[in-house]
Amino acid sequence: MQCRNCQHENAPHNKFCSNCGVQLDVSTLMELQRERKQATALFADIVGSTGLIANLDAESAGRRLQPAVEAMMQAAERFGGTILHTLGDGLDAIFGAPRAQDAHALLACQAALAMQEAVAALPIPTQIRIGIHSGEVVASPRGDAFGHEAQGLVLHIASRLEHEAEPGGILLSMECNDLVRDYCETSPAGVRTLRGVPEPIKVFRLIGLKPGVGSDRFRAIGLSPLRGRHAELEILKKAVLDAENNAGSVIGIVAHAGMGKSRLCYELGEWCRQRNLKVLEGRAQVFGKSQSMPLLAVLELLRAFFRITATLDHKIARAKIEERLLALDPTFVDELPYLLNLLGLPAPELDTQRADPKAWHLRVRNLIKRIAVAAGRQTSVIIFEDLHWLDDLSEDFVTAIAEAIEGTKLVMIVNYRPTWAPPWSIEHFTELRLTELGSSDIQQLVRDQIGDDPHLANMVTDIAQQSDGNPFFAEELVRALAQSGTLLGERGQYRIVSSDWLTPTLPATIEAVIGARIDLLPALEKAALQIGAVIGKEFPLTIAMEVSGIPEQEIKGLFARLCDLDLITASSNIDRPGYSFRHPLIQEVAYAMQLRSRRAQLHSSVARAIEGAPWGSADESASLLAYHCEAAGQMLEAAMHLRRAALWLGRKNSARALTEWKRVRWLLRDQPRSTAVDQLRALASGRVLGFAWSEGLSAEDAKPYAEEALQYAREAGDRKHEALLLGAYGRVFAASGAADDYIGLARQGVAAAEASKDPDVFVACNAQLCQAYLLAGCLRESLDANDTAMTANDERCQADNGVVLGLNASQIFGFDVGQWLLCLRARTLVLLGQFEAAERCLATAFRADQSKAIPVVQYHAHLAAVEMAFHRGNIAMAGLHAKEVEGYASQSGMTYLFTAARLCRALVSSAEGDFGSASDDLHEALATARKSKTGLEIEARLLAYLADVVKRAGQKARAGQLVREAIEVARRRTDRVAELHAHIVAADLELAGGAINPELCDDHLQRAKALLDVTGAAIFASRLADLRPGDVKIANKSVQIEN
Question: Domain Guanylate cyclase, which positions (predicted)?
Answer without folding.
Answer: 40-162
